[in-house]
Amino acid sequence: MTSNQTSGYLGLVLHSHLPFVKHPEHERFLEENWLYEAISETYIPFLMMLDQLEQEGVNARVTVSVTPSLSNMLEDPLLNERYEKHMHLMLELLDKEQERTFDDHAMAPVVAFYRDRFQKILDYYIVNLKRCVLNGYRHFQQTGVLEIITCAATHGFLPNLRFTPRSVAAQIELGVRSHTRIFGQTPKGIWLPECAYFEGLEDTLKENGLEYFLVDTHGILFSRPRSIYGNFAPVFTPNGTAVFGRDQESSRQVWSSKEGYPGDFRYREFYRDVGWDLPYNYIKPYINPDGKRIFVGLKYYRITGQGDFKEPYVRQDAMEAAAEHAGNFVDNRIEQVQHLNQVMGKAPLVVCPYDAELFGHWWYEGMDFLYFLFKKMHYDQDSLQVVTLSDYLQQNPEHQVVKPASSTWGDKGYNEVWLNRGNDWIYKYVHDLSIQLSSLARKYRYTTDELQERLLNQMARELLLAESSDWAFLMTTQTAAEYASRRTVLHIENFRRLANMLLDHSVMDMDVLEGLEFKNSIFHQDMDFRIYCP
Predict the structure, then answer these.
(1) Annotated binding site for substrate
(2) Would the pTM of this model clear 0.70, i.e. be above it?
């Protein structure tokens, strides 16, 4: 495609994030499954899809955020070892399932599909990725397929942390530092946690070398002055940091389970899982060790319709649906940019940001959709150019200067999801701890005592983990709310206990410190408590 054929640009952005969960005190732990499922259903299938496109000579360009909390889990030796054990357990169950469904003409093909898929994913993990998913991201960053951007260190909800500015600065500085070590390049952009922006945040971003960030639609539409081109061109803040806004139309087509593609009746039904469907004694070795039924990731039915009745999943039908929807998406974007081009008098940019886990985990065929989308973009059209966000800024360096509006991409568009009667108690504690840590960081700034540094570094880890926006979100949605509350309280208590050890050596307990350093080991290569020094 030549530049004079381009009617517009498409910027696909995938936000890859999970909260830091690691429980070495348990052999198997329910919330650790969040990571194992995401690896098997999203991260490895994404890399396999890019690998296939590369082999076929198909051009793909994607901006991907890999949050520091996720990347630290993906490089953790214990979690990688446990992921492999998890996959072998799944294959053991699938071998049993093949025996059980041998004569079932409807279910046998579904089980065979899963058995083959899980084996291929495990093989790819071991052979291609050398038992570390991050190796795949590094490869495609090196080949130019991926632009990998960062996020705040533990996905802290920054508007609610701004009253203790060192918390915001630490989240950004450590996020950039960890990203640079892991991926070998300084990130140009950042995905703000929950796309949550407040006025002045761009100053902290620029201090850390970040050139752009993303906001939801109204963050730009309500800017001062109003954006001339709406969300279809980036804007600059007064300090020169670029801002990209989310396109609503393309978002709705992919996000919505009712209006959008994922609700097609041919696709896999997420909520029918063998962890609940199969007899208890049969499935017991594969569910939670305490005996509670859970989703194990094997779902044999398609959506079928609105009612409870579900028909067996037919993989070929689902693939046809994914190809149809990819074609529809491309056609819609071409029509959209051609219209906007005439109105704007220039080639528009359509920014399509999504949670990466939507593709493969929630919408099982989402990765197939992306595969067909890139193939159709490559072969079937020449109006739309796929770009990373840095690509676009390099090609189009001049933009309007505005002050974006405070905004998030959460329900109702502002802060309510992360600040309400169900979770507001969090912030008093994290604010107090942040003030205390800043004071202690100043006091011990020049210490050369290894034990003091270890205590202060672990205190910083505990504070950062307590600040994760995931806990407030889960409390609001009442999804794993008890776990989220418990995690928040534990990190606060851990911080206080460590502070007591720092200030009173008579209560020093090395077993406690070493246990926390191993369990809550995030940023073990990156942490320096002095980031809390004003």
Answers:
(1) 246, 263, 409, 470
(2) yes
